[in-house]
Each structure stands twice: as structure tokens, then as C-alpha cells.
Design brief:
heterodimer, A: alpha/beta, 5-stranded parallel β-sheet, 19 strands, globular, B: Aconitase, domain 4, 2 domains, 7-stranded mixed β-sheet, 8 helices
């Protein structure tokens, strides 16, 4: 078939087409999965299911595992044995045992390659352009930054992929989010994705795969694109995508799981087609102007409850829709905030820099730039920096970032998910406000009664220094 | 998987939008390596006044009297009525496991988050999308009438109210088939084992770098 006769296709269409094993007549399709990432929280019941049914993994080499959600971020030389919480310890041990039993490669707690699954996949070259990538974690959308079709799945599907290397799927719709023009200085990928969610809402992308494009997206580094795709799920889209360009190829080159030699050349020539064709049809298009985006801060309990740093906490009385009004009132009550309060007047108790959204080397560099030569405010109880992987930590230490953070009064921790979801010992106390570089400000997310404000790494570092939000654009 | 054919059950209303899976089952309960036992911690932070811990005796904890599932008229409910974007956030399948363990067999809402919606069907829970004004109608009727029950027929894809009103809903044929027959989806997929092997052979020709690359 001549390609010139084909209808122009979106990137998502291409990724879908190349993974269809079988189209079923009921509208569903069997889709082949190239890579599955596994962690300790959503895999134990899947392995147990395999055992009960007497099944084996279809393709052991397609899987890669690491513990991240439960691991302590404090000193951990005593390994799994040293995890104080017995329930967490059993879960991490269970992952080790399952990977051992089924022959799956795992970066264990001690391994310097251990880290948050969505950091280590790309870092290892285990995430490659054109792949389908799944993981029992909704932030699997991160990997779409490499033009991989990547989305979160539940534990039943983790088991399904282990057993069959496939998933039963229905094709999603195509959405294009285009961010035109140049970003202002001090405005980062995190601010862009929060602004997008503020515009389309947390259900705006439900049922869609979102391709992010436009000059502002193209100008982002791979780390920035990962931050954008990471939070596609907070806009309701299971998958986010960015087309392949030179930055993608340069990032992937030479990584441990990346192809080499002739295979590399062959792969690169295939990857160059991983973009939407001119004239490809999207079911929905959203356009933002980069210059309009200021540093963002969430004030409520859903990522769509967001405003620019110059903004104020909204008044529910101004909202006409009853359900939305009720949502704002509830959020303000939970957050302990009054309508009309300036965002810069919100006083903070803790600061968290980390998570699969913002724990990569570039994120740490941005935060360190602000922290350098400054001190964490005395009113703060804690300011945590948690690198996304052992290799990110090592790199940061080589660059002296750890010293900058420590001198400023931040804590410098071991890698893991940490206070993003507070499954380990890192959590907020009831009523505490936290400037967090993570992805969800849901009630109780960072600890029972905790109050989360989502921001970029530089905004978080600045908030740590001043004890309240400040506009990073106004800092030297 | 449990079969779902037809049921009649008491309705409990969860009257807020964007209920996320952190709210359905908070993270401390995700440390379990089992699939069962999550029911007592369903909606934990809304349901109790204290902070819950895994392996705790929940019968001794202070209940939030304002929370809907703590009200006597909703005891034994098996249909959850919800608002838009129900189940957003984390992909944790512990959310449908908790709903199932509590005793819910169906959830009705104007819209669901994709991953949660999918996870329900893997666990014999029927997630039904109805129009927003039909959901409003059901919220009103549930508030006004103690013991308000609905009948759900999956074969015909119809929800019937006590007053005889009927709402039809859509469900993917594959999901309907699996639920009606209580099928093991992995078993169904493995019937296509040959197709998977043929795909792999083709793909190894086109994209050999995707296979057997293990540099560690």
C-alpha cells in the first residue's frame, strides 16, 4: 500500500494502528503492549492472579520493576528490612519475591537505578518512541513525551498484560492542545499544564488522547514535556503525546535499554515518522497563547482549581452552576481559605519538591537556582527535596545541588514517590498548607487533613524561602 | 469474575462532583497485598471522624453522622448514585474492590473517569452513564423517598424506577458479554494466542529493537 494514498493520520492514530493485534467485530481491539513497568502497590494481586491460574508471563523481557510508592526516603542502608512500617515492608518484599519468582528485572531499593517508575523508564531508555507503555499507575501518561502510547491501567489489566502481552481497548478520540508563542521567563512546563487543566477542566480530556504541540511545547526540554504529559491524566486524558524531534532522539541515545549500532539507525528512521501528518483531523482542538500564562498556583482540592500567582481565591457566590458552586464552597472549607484572599498571602507550613511530575534533574536545577544563597523561612516546618531516582540524585550531587539545598535549609532525601501521596512516612499534618511540585491536590492526598497547593519547582523553592507564595518572575 | 445479569437494589446518593479514587479508598489501605477486605474503609475520610489505619478494628472508630452511608435509611445499599467525573485521579483498582467489598454492584453517574470506569467492569461492577437531568431526577427521588430502589437489567440495558420510569443506557458489547457471562478476560484473550504470535513475528521484522533488548 502506498503511503501517499493514506488519509493523513494523527500521531495517536499511527501508534494505535501499529499495535492492533486483532480488531474485534464488537468495536474493541486487542492491542499489543511493548513495555510494562511494575511497582509494589498495584502488582501483588496481579502476580497472585497468575499463580492461581497457573499462568506465566508472556514475555518476561517486556517488564521492568522498581519499588517507589512505599519506600522510605531517609537513610536506607539496611534495605527492605529497614522499612519501619511492617505493612509497607511486606509490600516491597512481595515485589522483590514476585520479580525473583517470575524472572522479571527489578531495580531494588538499594540499586542506584531505583526510583519513581516514570522517572526510571525514560532514564533507562526502557521507554522508547513508538512503544506502547503501561503501568498500574495513572501517571504513566508521562511516557507520551517520547511519542509512546502510554497510559495507566488497573491491577486486573496488569495481570492481563503479564499473561497475554495485550490489552483489550477501544480507540480513544484525538485532541490537540496547541500552545502558541514563547513562554515568559520564569514560566515552566508545570505552569503550562496547570493552565491547560484550568481551561479545559479535570474531565476535559476524558475519552481523548491529547497531543500537545505548538512552539511553546516544542521549545521545552524532554523533562518539561514529561511534566506536561504526566498531568494529562489530571485533565482526564489517559494518554498525553508529544511528537518526536531531535530532542527526543538525543535524549534516548546511548541509554542502557536503547538500541545500538544498526538497530539504532533503523529505529531512528522509523521514529522520524512519529508525528501527526499535515491535515490530520482532531476531534477537538484547544489553543492557548503562551505569553498569557503566568506562574500557576492551585487554591482548591482539584487541579482545575487553579489561578495565576497574581490571582485571588474565587468566591463561590459568583458561580452560577449549583454543583460547581458546591464544589468551590467545599474546597474553600477544606483548604481553610476565604474567598478574595490573594494567592501570595497564603502562608505555608511545608514545601515538597519531588514526584513523577517534577523530580528530574532539570526540576532540581530550577529549584536550586532559586534556593542558592537564600534560606528557608523560619516559619516553615519542613522543606523536602526528593530526587526522582538514584541516578538523578547522583547527577544532582555531582553538580553540587545537594549542597545548595542543604545550606538553604532544605532536607535532601533518597528517591521515591514520598509526599506526593504520603504512603511512606513523609506526610502533611491536618490543616497544614504545602507548596508541592506534585500532581494532585485532592483532599487527604498528602496526609489526612493536609492542604496541597500545586506549583512548579521554582515557585516551590521561592515559597520555601518566603514562607508564602511569591511571583518567581520578580526574583533576581 | 462475578456475573451481572439483573438486580434490584437500594440506592445511596453521593452528592458531589469529581469524587476521586483517593476519596474512595485512601492510600494507607493500598499497602495490602490482597484483593478483599477494603469495604470497611470505603470513603474512609468522609465516613469516619478519625484517621484510619490498615488492620484497625473499624467498629471502634467514631462515625461521621452526616455521611450518607452512615444514615440508617441507606444501610444495605447496592447501587451508588454519583455526580460527574466519578472516580477521577489514581488508577488504583482498590477503588472498585472497596465498592464491591462494601456491597455495591452498580454505580450510576452522568460521567466517569476512564480508568476507573474500565476497572469497574473487570470486577463485576456495572458503571452506568445516564443523562445529567436523569441523574438529577434520581437524586431528587432518592432524597424524597426512603427505601428508593432501582432495577437494572444488563441484557436489555435498562434502569427501571419504582414508579415505572425507564432509562436506557449504553454498554460496550464486549463488556456486556463478559459481565453477563462472568467471563475471565484473560482466558478470552488467550483464545487469540495465534494472532498475538503472528503479530509478534511481523513486528520483529519491522521493529526488531523492541524485542529481546536487555542491557543491564
Amino acid at each position: 500500500m502506498s503511503s501517499s494514498k493514506q488519509q493523513p493520520r494523527t500521531l495517536y492514530d499511527k501508534l494505535w494502528d501499529s499495535h492492533v493485534v486483532k480488531q474485534r467485530d464488537d468495536g474493541s481491539a486487542l492491542i499489543y503492549i511493548d513495555r510494562q513497568l511494575l511497582h509494589e502497590v498495584t502488582s501483588p494481586q496481579a502476580f497472585e492472579g497468575l499463580r492461581i491460574a497457573g499462568r506465566k508471563p508472556w514475555r518476561v523481557d517486556a517488564n521492568l520493576a522498581t519499588p517507589d510508592h512505599n519506600v522510605p526516603t531517609t537513610e536506607r542502608s539496611s534495605g527492605v528490612e529497614g522499612i519501619a512500617d511492617p505493612v509497607s515492608r511486606i509490600q516491597v518484599q512481595t515485589l522483590d519475591d514476585n520479580c525473583e519468582d517470575f524472572g522479571i528485572t527489578e531495580f531494588k531499593m538499594h540499586d542506584k537505578r531505583q526510583g519513581i517508575v516514570h522517572v526510571i523508564g525514560p532514564e533507562q531508555g526502557a521507554t522508547l518512541p513508538g512503544m506502547t507503555v503501561v503501568c498500574g499507575d495513572s501517571h504513566t501518561s508521562t511516557h507520551g513525551a517520547f511519542a509512546a502510547l502510554a497510559h495507566g491501567i488497573g491491577t486486573s489489566e496488569v495481570e492481563h498484560v503479564l499473561a497475554t502481552q495485550c490489552l483489550v481497548q477501544k480507540k480513544m478520540l484525538n485532541m490537540l492542545v496547541r500552545v502558541d508563542g514563547e513562554l515568559q521567563k520564569g514560566v515552566t512546563a508545570k505552569d503550562v499544564i496547570l493552565a491547560i487543566i484550568g481551561q479545559i477542566g479535570t474531565a476535559g480530556g476524558t475519552g481523548y488522547a491529547i497531543e500537545f504541540a505548538g512552539q511553546a511545547i516544542e521549545s521545552l526540554s524532554m523533562e518539561g514535556r514529561m511534566t506536561i504529559c504526566n498531568m494529562a491524566i489530571e485533565a482526564g486524558a489517559r494518554a498525553g503525546l508529544v511528537a518526536v524531534d531531535e530532542k527526543t532522539i538525543n535524549y534516548v541515545k546511548g541509554r542502557p535499554f536503547s538500541p545500538q549500532g544498526k538497530l539504532w539507525d533503523q529505529a531512528v528512521s522509523a521514529w522520524r515518522d512519529l508525528h501527526s501528518d499535515a491535515g490530520a483531523q482532531f476531534d477537538k482542538e484547544v489553543i492557548l497563547n503562551a505569553a498569557d500564562i503566568e506562574p500557576q498556583v492551585t487554591w482548591g482540592t482539584s487541579p482545575e482549581m487553579v489561578t495565576g500567582v497574581s490571582g485571588i481565591v474565587p468566591d463561590p457566590e459568583q458561580e452560577s452552576d449549583a454543583t460547581a458552586k458546591d464544589g468551590i464552597s467545599r474546597a474553600l472549607q477544606y483548604m481553610g481559605l476565604a474567598a478574595g484572599k490573594a494567592v501570595t498571602q497564603i502562608q505555608l507550613d511545608r514545601v515538597f519538591i519531588g514526584s513523577c511530575t517534577n523530580s528530574r534533574i532539570e526540576d532540581l536545577r530550577e529549584a536550586a537556582k532559586v534556593a542558592k544563597g537564600r534560606k528557608v523561612a523560619g516559619t516553615l516546618k519542613q522543606a523536602l527535596v526528593v530526587p526522582g531516582s538514584g541516578l538523578v540524585k547522583e547527577q544532582a550531587e555531582q553538580e553540587g545541588l545537594d549542597k545548595i539545598f542543604l545550606e538553604a535549609g532544605f532536607e535532601w532525601r533518597e528517591p521515591g514517590c514520598s509526599m506526593c501521596l504520603a504512603m511512606n512516612a513523609d506526610k502533611l499534618g491536618a490543616g497544614e498548607h504545602c507548596a508541592s511540585t506534585s500532581n494532585r491536590n485532592f483532599e487527604g492526598r498528602q496526609g489526612f487533613g493536609g492542604r496541597t497547593h500545586l506549583v512548579s519547582p521554582s515557585m516551590a523553592a521561592a515559597a520555601a524561602v518566603f514562607g508564602h507564595f511569591v511571583d518567581v518572575r520578580e526574583l533576581d | 469474575m462475578k456475573k451481572f445479569t439483573q438486580m434490584t437494589g437500594l440506592v445511596a446518593p453521593m452528592d458531589r462532583a469529581n469524587v476521586d479514587t483517593d476519596m474512595i479508598i485512601p492510600k494507607q489501605f493500598l499497602k495490602s497485598i490482597k484483593r478483599s477486605g477494603f469495604g470497611p474503609n470505603l470513603f474512609d475520610e468522609l465516613r469516619y471522624l478519625d484517621e484510619g489505619q490498615p488492620d484497625q478494628d473499624n467498629s471502634q472508630r467514631p462515625l461521621n453522622p452526616d455521611f450518607v452511608l452512615n444514615q440508617s435509611r441507606f444501610q444495605g445499599a447496592s447501587i451508588l448514585l454519583a455526580r460527574k467525573n466519578f472516580g477521577c485521579g489514581s488508577s488504583r483498582e482498590h477503588a472498585p474492590w472497596a465498592l464491591d467489598d462494601y456491597g455495591f454492584r452498580a454505580v450510576i453517574a452522568p460521567s466517569f473517569a476512564d480508568i476507573f470506569f474500565n476497572n469497574c467492569f473487570k470486577n463485576g461492577i456495572l458503571a452506568i452513564v445516564l443523562k445529567e437531568n436523569d441523574v438529577d431526577f434520581l437524586f431528587d427521588r432518592t432524597a424524597e423517598n426512603e427505601g428508593y430502589s432501582l432495577t437494572i437489567n444488563l441484557q436489555d440495558k435498562i434502569v427501571t424506577t419504582p414508579e415505572g420510569k425507564q432509562f436506557s443506557f449504553e454498554v460496550d458489547r464486549f463488556r456486556q458479554h463478559c459481565l453477563l457471562n462472568g467471563l475471565d478476560e484473560i482466558g478470552v484473550t488467550l483464545e487469540d494466542e495465534d494472532a498475538i504470535r503472528q503479530y509478534e513475528l511481523r513486528r520483529k521484522q519491522d521493529a526488531p529493537w523492541l524485542f529481546g533488548q536487555q542491557h543491564y
